[in-house]
């Protein structure tokens, strides 16, 4: 076979593969996304706005923002601590910790929600004590926050661990050798080294915190205007055959995904940060 | 004065250092020399306070600093890959040690910058202060790392493989320059290296380490000319070794004899080491026969590689390059003019 023939053939294969990938993506990703916005706006822009301005929808949006505002910072704190511990120190049980961090990725969100019902529900382990003291966790906002934290906690840690492991501890040792305290070393050396990776982790964590359905659904109780987050509200509207309103709220979630994607891409483009690399 | 007393350290089941005793004099330039895995870097990190010994004490000027953390020991440490802070300019890197001092002892911002500029000039990089580490060559990064370590005015400078990542020419330049700086600033310096040439050229004294223990401490001359063990003989400088049988003041290799002075204490099997330059060609053919396999020029000598005829031993000899170069396949006869005998069997 001549070289030109091989080149032509490999070009053919290349185009076939690209076409397959594009078709696949169009069908599974682009089409649904277009459908969400098309359905949301099917009955006109006025209906769309009205659906979003509905008090229940507004309260769902507020609750979703609140849950994200609590769970994302907590997971940032946890993720940085865990990544710091795993990458800068050697200790027994390190691999156990790593496995535990991954656990929320591997268990079904429904199970994650059920765990909290078992612990804090009226019939749960701590249920009677909580009832006696007038604390509501299940079917209330605290339960939703807890479930969201559980489901989203690997995102920041998982993003930082490989990055910090690759960077090693030599920069920190250099700072310490120059007389810096632990806190100063973190603020002036470690934090700048990990900031893009951290931001990336926060974006992913936030997207999941706002979009989580399964775990939240179990602990929420679906009380309209009280314990409904946006994904739960979408489901309720959909089950009531209120398609335009369901898709209107869903379009906000889809928009969040698009904004996250755009931010992530612009970060990568602007700072040359690519997933898992040092800069 | 730095004193190490009975320092031991192990990682898991693997002993990195056992019972190290060492005294470093003020103003000394000391090399820790050994192959990888010999524990030399671990020892340097223990002196710095970056690692803790399992046993033993570290003294700085009679003060026990074993429990002090690295930040409190006031040493300058230059890391193997320099560990410059990549998000800070060169000046900010150099000024870092001053800028992280507690508020009461921290100089004013302008003072820190002025001091950083001074140091930048000292390491001959004036004008590069606003660059970032990634924009510097390896040799320049090395100098910045040194300036950063010197900014906190340490009495003790510790360097981990300081020239390891540099090309040969830059390395030679920097070596000479570092030696000058050491004297000019009145420092006590300890550096780790696996390169025996570097240790011999730079250091006042060389500490040869093998498998976590000190094999020999001495001046470069002592270590090279009078190695105390077979390991030192083989590791420091080029060396040939032959398995011999010692009888009185003679060593026998097959049916050839080599005179030994002074005679070793014990008769029996031993290892005879000699340097490539400690040989003479035997014009009368009365010596160890050599089948030449390779030749190359090494300065003013031919470095001749070959097999001792009738055995499987490969040796290297230096022969004056004034004469014609031997050819592969030639047969030469040589005598050994200076040699040492070690108890252990010859390696190879």
Describe this protein's structure:
- The complex is a heterodimer of chains A (279) and B (348).
- Chain A is an all-alpha fold.
- Chain A has helices spanning 3-40, 44-53, 55-88, 94-106, 109-120, 127-132, 141-152, 154-167, 170-177, 182-211, 214-220, 230-239, 243-271.
- In chain A, helix 3 (55-88) packs antiparallel against helix 10.
- In chain A, 33% of the residues are buried.
- Residues 274-279 of chain A have low confidence and may be disordered.
- Chain B is 25% helix and 35% strand.
- In chain B, the strands form 4 sheets. Chain B has a 6-stranded mixed sheet, with helices on both faces. A 5-stranded antiparallel sheet of chain B has the order 13-12-11-14-20. In chain B, strands 15-19-16-17-18 form a 5-stranded antiparallel sheet, with no helix packed on it.
- Chain B starts with a strand and ends in a 6-residue tail after the last strand.
- The model of chain B has no long low-confidence stretch (mean pLDDT 90).
- Chain A binds chain B through residues 170-171, 173-181, 184, 188-189, 192-193, 279, and chain B through 48, 50, 69-71, 74-77, 79, 81, 83-87, 96-97, 100-101, 148-149, 151-152.
